[in-house]
Amino acid sequence: MDYQNTLKYLYESAPMFQQIGSKAYKPGLETTHRLDEHFGHPHQQFKTIHIAGTNGKGSCSHTLAAILQEAGYRVGLYTSPHLVDFRERIRINGQPIPEEYVIRFVEQERGIDGNVPEKRTEKMRYMKTSRPFPRLESTRNT
User: What are phi and psi of 96, to 5 degrees?
Assistant: First the structure.
């Protein structure tokens, strides 16, 4: 699978609010908790800052990432949505993750034959699968 087909799969495999409205909404955190368990609770393996609120999350996140990076930390940053390329959402030290990483991740999580394994059907949702892509970490560069 190439990068463009990988993105097509991501965009078409889940009900996005922009496309189908409120039918895309699933209340509760059950799916998120199951996805977190599937990936081994990655947020517990490194220090994390979660920025929430109505306005200013992007600028606040980018500012904090720049400060931490300048202080010598290796910084992973996830923001959404993207403007041009999906990889803008996931950056490590300011650099978008490689296309190959996105392809490999999607191929691994959807199954080798191209089908989503039955136990992963609820987990492979566009907004949810874009979040845990890399093991993003903030550790001091030595």
Answer: -60, 150
Q: What local confidence, expressed as pLDDT, does residue 23 receive?
A: 78
- Cβ neighbors of 10 (< 8 A, separation 6 or more) are 86, 106, 126, 129, 130
Q: What is the pLDDT of residues 22-66, one digit of tens each?
A: 877 788 999 889 888 988 998 888 888 989 998 999 999 999 999
Q: How far apart are the first and last CA of the chain?
A: 36
Alpha carbon distance 67, 45 (integer Å): 21
Task: Kindly tell me the sign of the dihedral angle through the C-alpha atoms of 81, 83, 88, 93.
Answer: negative
